[in-house]
Write a structure and sequence with these properties.
Number of helices: 9
CATH architecture of the largest domain: Sandwich
GO molecular function: ATP binding; heat shock protein binding; unfolded protein binding; zinc ion binding
Structural class: alpha+beta
CATH topology of the largest domain: HSP40/DNAj peptide-binding domain
Subcellular location: Cytoplasm
Shape: elongated
CATH class of the largest domain: Mainly Beta
Number of strands: 15
Order of helices and strands: HHHHHEHEEEEEEEEEEHEEEEHH
Radius of gyration: 33 Å
CATH superfamily of the largest domain: Urease metallochaperone UreE, N-terminal domain
Strand content: 25-35%
Family: Belongs to the DnaJ family.
Cofactor: Zn(2+)
Largest sheet: 4 strands, mixed
Distance between the termini: 61 Å
Pfam families: DnaJ, DnaJ_C, DnaJ_CXXCXGXG
């Protein structure tokens, strides 16, 4: 059976970046990993196929050869044959280690506390100026009973884990693959507590509600993730804490729309203002206001650019531009006198004096020629 296209295997485009390739690989590998699909030969085959595709596409030289020659580039013992390439198991272990709060290292790997994800919402005006925001979240801290040691007598009193013999990891055969994962007895530490603390069951941790004030910089984009190192959950038995990740959502604004450093604002103007010209006052995102001159005969949709009146640029003192779009409003609920005046205007236009509506005149001239067979 012929091999599937590697891009199709990972569900990515041929223009995908290395970051996108790795993200797609991790997502697929987690789904079909043997630990999650024990006894499923179809998942095992997909897992092998995914790793083979990633082994080629993560390497720029192999990827270039594959883009030019396809699978033929790796026949007869070429660099793509054989599924896992160098570092294949490392990528898998990195992925599952990160999920379990592990950091790669030597024997007796040290665990760090879990990372915490929280979300906060801010107004568009707050994203413009920057703001200090307090976030609340549930976390884990060192156990107050055992001072984080995990031991009832506040003494480490640890011994080598009998399951992994201090390695912190165990290996098992899963079909074609030798899978390495954290030890389930010592959770990767390589040590177990002889006399576990009754309050924390030997973990050295207890739950807490935490508040933290964070600085959200001016110019931040919607969906930005801010990392605060060391503010995640405490690690077991005194090991380093994880990190806090704050996902920032910028709420829509009722007047302004933002695109990067550019601000857009639609301003309604009366028909008479657009026809005769006017000077109108418009709001600015910084809370101020400015005047804009509307020339005589301005059409709906016309844009005016205000330099330096747009959004803050992240980590810069500069600002983008602001665009004002005019929306000419047709009057409603006219008085009798207003109707009379507009009817006079219309009659004047129909008597051959309509020089102010070139687009209308031009269009109906083309329509007349069409019906007369001239076009």
């Amino acid at each position: 059976m012929s091999k599937r296209d590697y891009y199709e295997v990972l569900k990515i485009s041929r223009t995908a970046t290395q970051v996108e390739i790795k993200q797609a690989y991790r997502k697929k590998a987690m789904k079909y990993h043997p630990d999650r699909n024990q006894g499923d030969p179809e998942a095992e085959a997909k897992f092998k196929e995914i790793n083979e595709a990633y082994d080629i596409l993560k390497d720029e030289q192999k990827k270039a050869a594959y883009d030019q020659y396809g699978h033929d580039a790796f026949q007869n013992g070429g660099p793509g044959a054989g599924g896992f390439g160098a570092g294949g198991f490392g990528d898998i272990f990195d992925m599952f280690g990160d999920m379990m709060g592990m950091r790669r290292g030597g024997q007796g790997q040290r665990r760090t506390g879990a990372d915490i994800q929280v979300q906060t919402e801010i107004q568009l005006t707050e994203a413009f100026s920057g703001i200090k925001k307090t976030v609340k979240y549930q976390s884990k801290k060192s156990c107050s009973s055992c001072d984080g040691s995990g031991s009832e007598d506040k003494n480490q009193g640890s011994k080598t884990c009998p399951t992994c013999h201090g390695a912190g990891k165990i290996r098992s055969q899963q079909g074609f693959f030798l899978v390495e994962r954290p030890c389930h007895t010592c959770h990767g530490s390589g040590q177990v507590i002889s006399n576990p603390c009754k309050k924390c069951q030997g973990t050295g941790l207890e739950s807490q509600e935490k508040e933290l004030e964070i600085d959200i910089p001016a110019g931040i984009e919607d969906g930005t993730r801010i990392r605060i190192a060391g503010e995640g959950e405490a690690g077991s038995n005194g090991t380093p804490p994880g990190d806090l990740y704050v996902h920032v959502s910028v709420l829509p604004h009722e007047i302004f729309q933002r695109d990067g450093g550019t601000i857009f604002c639609r301003i309604p103007v009366r028909m008479t203002q657009a026809a005769l010209g006017a000077e109108i006052e418009v709001p600015i995102i910084d809370g101020g206001r400015t005047k804009v001159k509307i020339p005589t005969g301005t059409q709906s949709g016309k844009q005016f650019r205000l330099r330096g009146k747009g959004f803050s640029v992240l980590r810069s003192s500069s600002r983008g531009d602001m665009y004002i779009e005019v929306k000419v409003e047709t009057p409603q609920n006219l008085t009798k006198r207003q109707k009379e005046l507009l009817e006079e205007f219309e009659n004047e236009s129909q008597d051959g004096h309509d020089h102010g509506s070139p687009e209308t005149s031009g269009f109906f001239s083309k329509v007349r020629d069409f019906f007369e067979g001239k076009s």
